[in-house]
Write a structure and sequence with these properties.
By secondary structure, the protein is of the alpha/beta class. It has a single domain, classed as Rossmann fold. The chain has 6 helices and 5 strands; from the N terminus they run αβαβαβαβαβα. It has a 5-stranded parallel sheet, sandwiched between helices. Helix 2 crosses helix 6 and helix 3 packs parallel to helix 4. The radius of gyration is 14 Å and the shape is globular. 30% of the residues are buried.
Length: 152
Amino acid sequence: MNDMLNRGRPAEILLVEDNDNDVELTKIGFQRTRLAVNLHHVPDGEECMAFLRRQGQYAEVPTPDLILLDLNMPRMNGREVLQAISEDPELRHLPVVVLTTSDAEKDVLTSYRLRCSSYIVKPVDFENFAKVVQSLTDYWFTLVVLPPGKGQ
């Protein structure tokens, strides 16, 4: 079993998403799982990078165990976030799951080239979306050994 679960603390997840409906669906999906989760949310890539670097209002936030990243956002898109994370030696160990509506081959290929950990196309209906969140939770917090969090 994952070391994080053995420590008995909630999973720290950063959701980077500009669509309020998708944010709500994700929250509800995590509420249906049996895992204790602290779901943090930022609406765009610039806020994501501030969160990850603990800048400004994010000075006291925990390091996320997992980042759920939308690709198409204002200000700084998901591709730019992946690029910034992969170039930062303090952040590149963090697992990033691209969770987006795009199934374009170019987006999939670009995301993996920028070192995303997984690429998932968001289902349109709620029940399938909830199943995706449950599968994500089961995989990332039951089966996978995650890197230890820094500065927690």
